[in-house]
Amino acid sequence: MRITSTGAAARAAYYDRNPTEITALGFSGAATAPHGATTRGTYTVPSGRKAQVMWTSKDLIRSAVAAPVGAAGFRNILGFASGTGALTLTNNVVGDRSHGESGMGQTFVAGKVVSMQTFDLSTGGTIDYDGLTDILEFDA
Amino acid sequence: MQIKLRAIGTGTDKDPYRVNVPTWRCIDVDYKNGWMLVEIPDDVHGLTETDLGHETITTDVNGDHYAQLCAACTIAVHDHFDTKYQEHKGEFRLEFV
């Protein structure tokens, strides 16, 4: 007699375990002046839950010329301290833009933190920022 | 809930400007005066519309928001943080300007 385990089938898939789509983690900032590293939003996985980062998108568009220009960036910070490479913009003509998006798929356990951060090391000038991180939270 | 909180941090990569709340979205930031106006989802702060009924609403160019909560509501939010985010117990707090 062959005995097999069907344990996996006894539990619903993660996306069916009391799922919640998190829409809080995003940022839109028009004509934003230069600034030091600034967290624009944070999501923390609650106790008893897990979360999967489904997708992230970031845009920077120069809306006023800087003098001199410095690097501007928009990035996700995944986990407590590690960051993805920042999407940067160093061009200095109005309308210059940088766009990045990614289907990420990382799963985070309770207590982990995901955030979005911007910076602009220019002097003068402004940048429009627009970004979103789409997260699915579910029972652990 | 839209609320104005004290911005912490020094603006570096390792210590960015931020607020000390588990889940939030930035609406506006004033670096000079050290505050951020943020949106905190209802399930994160745990207060109901009734709980907030007696609080003072401030209206300015950023719309309606709270600049302060009473001691009882602040304690209730902190208790909710500690229950909902047990891995960070005692860490997240509302810090008013």
Please give a structural write-up:
- The complex is a heterodimer of chains A (140) and B (97).
- Chain A is elongated, with a radius of gyration of 19 Å.
- Chain A has one domain: Sandwich (Jelly Rolls), CATH 2.60.120.
- Chain A has 140 residues and is mainly beta.
- In chain A, the strands form 2 sheets. In chain A, strands 1, 2, 4, 7, 8 and 10 form a 6-stranded antiparallel sheet that branches. Chain A has a 4-stranded antiparallel sheet with strand order 3-9-5-6, with no helix packed on it.
- Chain A contains no helices and 10 strands.
- In chain A, β5 and β6 form a beta hairpin.
- Chain B is of the alpha+beta class and 97 residues long.
- Chain B has one domain.
- Chain B has helices at 42-45, 71-84; strands at residues 2-6, 24-30, 35-39, 58-60, 63-65.
- Chain B has a 3-stranded antiparallel sheet, with no helix packed on it.
- The radius of gyration of chain B is 13 Å and the shape is globular.
- The interface between A and B is medium-sized, with 25 and 28 residues.
**DSSP strand (E) fraction of chain B?**
15-25%
CATH topology of chain A: Jelly Rolls
Count every helix of chain A, treating DSSP H or I runs of 4 or more residues as helices. 0
The rounded Rg of chain B comes to 13 Å
Give the tally of β-strands of chain B: 5
**Total strands of chain A:** 10
Largest interface: A-B, 25 and 28 residues
User: What general outline of chain B do the C-alpha atoms trace?
Assistant: globular
Helix/strand-derived category of chain B reads alpha+beta
Q: What is the CATH-assigned architecture of chain A? A: Sandwich
What's the number of structural domains of chain A? 1
Q: Could you name the key traits of this structure?
A:
heterodimer; A: 140 residues; mainly beta; Jelly Rolls; six-stranded antiparallel beta sheet; 0% helix; 54% strand; elongated; B: 97 residues; alpha+beta; three-stranded antiparallel beta sheet; two-stranded antiparallel sheet; 5 strands; 19% helix; globular
